[in-house]
């Protein structure tokens, strides 16, 4: 379930209470008149079944509370209450399938910003990938995959395309279009420094048989990117973060960027171009898969679907 806190002007309180009281997915309704200091107003709190959150937030949004007050939503890990069980049972759909759009937008917005932390992680990941390439070490390549933060803006881009949030799309594109070149330039400088002091000595990158899968673009490159993007978006909307690790080590976005840099510093432009192609295939595949998952998501939880009816029937019999 989710915990909702509403701060609203006193003249809107009755309307807020009506919306929350009449919705079957809402319970544990609390009113504190005059409790809000900044902004001034009343505080209303309630617990909401995840599958009811979008409808409730849409109704509350019509009151203009984002301008005159505030809406705060946070997940609840454990709720021991028959009223909560009843609210989840009566709310249409299944909590595991529910996409709370405002929650998803807030999460992806935070992870898609071009800032010092994002650049640091991406640069470190590209440097790790370059080390993995020059040492022909798949283990180091996997480490670079896990460290890379690029899934955040890719997921945000998919969400923004589905929800038509163009400001979020612009933020994501800025993070990707500036982040990767900056990280790759820093990696190139590091590679040149390694070559200058004699740490890196490669006649040709084509002899690196343990990590050559990075630049070998083929049909399965797109297939893996699509599957990883779909799994990543599902993990994001269902808050199953453990699955994201598998996504990170499935696609070769950061390793492709690192391989392209190493090949370029070695004047092997064909390999650099192939690696760049691998990078592009992974980026596009992840976004496309994310869009498809989000676009199909509403059809997974229709109020009158056989799955929802069966679930409600079984839950009703188990009581």
Give your account of this protein's structure:
This protein has 319 residues and is of the alpha+beta class. 61% of the residues lie in helices and 10% in strands. It has helices at residues 13-22, 53-61, 65-68, 82-90, 101-111, 116-134, 138-147, 151-163, 166-196, 219-237, 242-248, 253-265, 269-296, 306-318; strands spanning 2-8, 26-36, 41-48, 70-75. It has a four-stranded antiparallel sheet. Strand 2 (26-36) and strand 3 (41-48) form a beta hairpin. Helix 10 (219-237) crosses helix 13 and helix 12 (253-265) runs antiparallel to helix 13. It is elongated. Residues 299-312 have low confidence and may be disordered.
Q: What's this model, at a glance?
A:
This is DUF389 domain-containing protein. This protein is of the alpha+beta class and 319 residues long.
- Whole-number average pLDDT? 86
Query: What structural category characterises the helix and strand content?
Result: alpha+beta
Major β-sheet annotation: 4 strands, antiparallel
Number of domains: 2
Catalogue the unreliable spans: 299-312
How far apart lie the N and C ends?
20 Å
Order of helices and strands: EHEEHHEHHHHHHHHHHH
* Strand content range: 5-15%
Residues in helices, as a percent range: 55-70%
Total E-strand runs: 4
Radius of gyration: 24 Å
Q: Strand sequence of the main sheet, in spatial order?
A: 2-3-1-4
Bulk shape: elongated
Query: Helical segment tally?
Result: 14
């Amino acid at each position: 379930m989710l915990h909702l806190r509403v701060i609203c002007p006193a003249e809107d309180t009755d309307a807020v209470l009506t919306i929350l009281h009449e919705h079957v997915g809402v319970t544990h309704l609390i009113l504190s008149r005059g409790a809000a200091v900044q902004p001034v107003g009343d505080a209303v709190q309630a617990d909401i079944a995840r599958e009811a959150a979008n409808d409730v937030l849409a109704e509350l949004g019509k009151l203009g509370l984002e301008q005159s007050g505030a809406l705060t939503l946070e997940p609840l890990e454990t709720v021991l209450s028959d009223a909560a069980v009843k609210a989840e049972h009566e709310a249409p759909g299944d909590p595991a399938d529910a996409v709370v759009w405002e929650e998803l937008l807030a999460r992806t917005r935070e992870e898609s910003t071009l800032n010092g932390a994002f650049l640091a992680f991406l640069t470190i990941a590209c440097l790790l990938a370059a080390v993995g390439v020059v040492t022909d070490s798949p283990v180091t390549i996997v480490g670079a995959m896990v460290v890379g933060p690029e899934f955040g803006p890719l997921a945000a881009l998919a969400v923004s395309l589905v929800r038509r949030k163009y400001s979020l799309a612009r933020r994501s594109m800025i993070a990707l279009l500036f982040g990767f070149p900056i990280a790759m330039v820093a990696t190139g400088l590091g590679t040149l420094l390694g070559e200058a002091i004699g740490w890196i000595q490669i006649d040709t990158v084509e002899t690196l048989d343990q990590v050559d899968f990075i630049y070998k673009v083929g049909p399965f490159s797109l297939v893996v990117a699509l599957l990883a993007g779909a799994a990543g978006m599902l993990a994001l909307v269902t808050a199953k973060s453990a699955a994201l690790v598998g996504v990170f080590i499935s696609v070769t976005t950061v390793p492709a960027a690192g391989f392209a840099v190493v090949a370029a510093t070695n004047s092997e432009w064909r390999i650099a171009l192939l690696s760049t192609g691998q990078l592009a295939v992974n980026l596009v595949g992840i976004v496309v898969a994310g869009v498809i998952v989000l676009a199909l998501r509403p059809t997974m939880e229709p109020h009158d679907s056989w799955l929802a009816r069966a679930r409600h029937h079984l839950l009703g019999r188990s009581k």
